[in-house]
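Person: I have long wanted to understand how a fold can be written as tokens. Underneath my words sits a plain record pairing an amino acid chain with its backbone structure tokens. Those tokens are not coordinates but codes from a learned vocabulary of shapes. I should like you to check that the lines agree and flag anything odd. The protein I mean follows directly.
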Amino acid sequence: MPRLLIGITLLCTLWGCVLPASVSEGDKSLAAGDPLQAIQLYQQALQETTDQGSRDTIDSKLEQAKQQYLQGQFAKADQMLAQAQSGRGAAVDQALILLRQSRQYDTKQGLLAARMQELEQERQQLEQEGASTKKQILEAIAGYDFARAQTLAAQALAISPGDKEAVRLQTAAVNLASIYANLSASVDQGNLAQAADAFTRLNAVAPAPLDPQKMPLRDKFVALLKRQLQNLKDTNRWSEAFSFLAMWKLPELEQELAQVRQQGVDYYVREAKNSLAQKNPHRAFLLAEKAMSIDDKRFDIFTLHKESRDQVDKALMRYIAVGTFDSPSTDPDAGRQFSDSLISHLYNMLPYGINILERDKIDVAMKEKQVGNQQLGDMLGVELVVTGTVSLFKVDQVLDKRNASVKLQTNQEVHENPAYQAMLRQYGPDEQTWPNVPPQTITRFQNQMVNYTKGTATLKGFSKVSVRIFDTKKGAISFVKDLEATVSENSEFQDEVAEAGIPYIPMKLPTETETKEVMRKQIINEIGKIVQSSFEAREQRFLNQARFFLERRETEQALTPLAEGLLYCQKDNLPVNNPALLEIRKLIDATLE
């Protein structure tokens, strides 16, 4: 290569062309193994000459330098591919990134483009292999061959370590293998509940629902189910038997499923009707729920479920009373306004089943009939009585008004200039003889002082409310507190003096009504939090009541909070995976069946 460059330079000398000095520097860089520096020098030389012969010579040198540079880049790319330890696909991507950075140095023959095309084709082939492997992983999982799925996932990641889908499938295959081992152990131990739970978890982890008919343990599981099915029937655990049978959807279980559906529904309907006849709507509701879970299309079940649910819903209702708050003498309507605002606030925030009695009924009972909080609770069936006194509800406004003044130029007058007159008297009318010529006239301005008003306005609101909450079940005051709220606003103001460039600044303060509303909301929010705390997490309260009765082996009594807790969760639209709801359902199954 150096000899070729020397020859080209010699020919150019013989022909009489003069090359820029940067060409010689480029030759030296290329000979020293720095083709990139040579490229930059040759490109500089092309800009320094317009002679076509010289440009052809330099262009030839530039092509040689580009070829040498690209050969070095190709060698680096080949080394990346040869040393790849984290997957061929990642190495191909890295090599492509390296070569893309050299696009500006491609030769006229497209040497770089050809090499990149080869790598692009290899990458496409690897992507096709990865897609095919992931398809095989899904097929292996569908066939319950979780070990093969793990092997295939490892192969896919060997091709492309950063493939998120392959990582997800590998994780799923590992988890599925572990769960399936638990399923197999549960079947061997004859534990139907654990086996069914394991199969449910299998489907939750699997990328797609698993077909139970393809499960290798199918025959063993069916045999176990049939052995235990009779025990479930004998103990009237029909909903459990139905859920086990319905889960698998196997042809050999269809007859058993139809039989369990018919016998189970008949049993639950019969027991629910008996419970209603015995004035036990809570038990009837739970039995109707069981019947609905097996067959929700029968009209008699729907009617029975609705009747029992309505009675449980009525028992689920709880009531609170909010009396008219006492008012300060300066604002006789403040107490009523606080009470009305509190009622509206509580209505929007309290959970299902908590109702607020009309304020008028409470006022009549407390004032006209002269009853106390305890008698009010007994008379109206309320659990909490909220009363209060508005001792302070006031808004003050203070104006710090100041007078200011500004000097304005009102008009102007033209007068003879005394200096000009003096020069005229001293030197005569020929201004050319004057040492300096002042103006003949001067302008005098007349000023006027204009007064305007400016200042600061301050608005302050003060509110104090004493709140009392009486718990009728405990027969005592459960909460007493003085709640306070304050508001403070400031605003500057001033008159406009347009001639002096003084802008008008209006007073911007909230009205008295707006200020009182802000304070009222602050206090109402505090009272609302206190009242809400008495009814928060109702599902957990029902669960705790049921556990209390069950610990005392009072099974029938436990059905009341269980039924109300279940209906509350349904009415309040709690998520199906709510921990308290899940535990309530477990206790219903254990207690009812």
Strands lie at 318-322, 354-356, 384-416, 441-471, 476-494. The first strand starts at residue 318 and ends at 322. Confidence is low (pLDDT under 50) at residues 1-16. The CA atoms of residues 483 and 523 lie 6 Å apart.
